[in-house]
Design goal:
mainly beta; seven-stranded parallel beta sheet; 0% helix; 54% strand
Length: 196
């Protein structure tokens, strides 16, 4: 049996947190490990990072995965802290964060997104993704229908960057919003103390 023989589209393998627990934790020993072809759904980390996946001081390779319906304090779908995240050909849809990064959250690391779709994710800031003190490279893919719902102040419907370098090429931003009762900024991207 070879990895190329699998058909993850028609033969779903689901890691389901059932709204009660985080789905996947990857520590430093998981650097370079491959997570490929899974549906990661309904994970929950109510006041913590990464309801779907939390990569702490490790960088697993995440390929062809769908993160759906996960929730957390930051990084409802995916959170990478310490070293960053490496995702390709992933779909991150319908995730929520009570604070930062509905779809994903990256802190103090190097993050790479290649040909990923982030859609219909919500958070107080950074509906699609929050990138803080990181270097992020996004190539291809789409941010569609993500929302920052910050009450009085909402920042970054698709992406919120803080103290980071963001390099994006060939990325589509469609119908992302930053909605607030007072100040909403950056329907697509809001950057502070960094470079885009």
């Amino acid at each position: 049996t070879d990895l190329s023989d699998r058909d993850p589209t028609n033969n779903l393998t689901i890691i389901d947190g059932q709204g009660a627990r985080r789905c996947v934790y990857a520590g430093v020993s998981m650097t370079g490990a491959l997570l490929d072809g899974f549906v990661i759904a309904n994970g929950s980390a109510p006041s913590g990072p990464g309801g779907g996946l939390f990569a702490e001081n490790g960088v697993p390779q995440i390929r062809n995965c769908t993160f759906q319906g996960n929730s957390g304090g930051c990084g409802g779908g995916v959170c990478g802290s310490g070293y960053g995240s490496d995702l390709a050909e992933c779909v991150i849809i319908g995730n929520t964060a009570s604070d930062y990064g509905g779809g994903g959250f990256s802190y103090a690391g190097s993050t790479r997104l290649a040909s990923c779709t982030l859609s219909d994710n919500t958070a107080r800031e950074g509906g699609g993704a929050w990138i803080s003190d990181s270097i992020a490279q996004i190539s291809g893919g789409t941010f569609d229908g993500n929302s920052a719902l910050g009450g009085q102040s909402a920042l970054g419907g698709a992406i919120r960057c803080m103290g980071s370098v963001l390099k994006a090429a060939g990325v589509r931003f469609v119908s992302n919003t930053a909605s607030a009762t007072r100040d909403g900024h950056g329907g697509a991207i809001y950057s502070e103390s960094g470079n885009v």
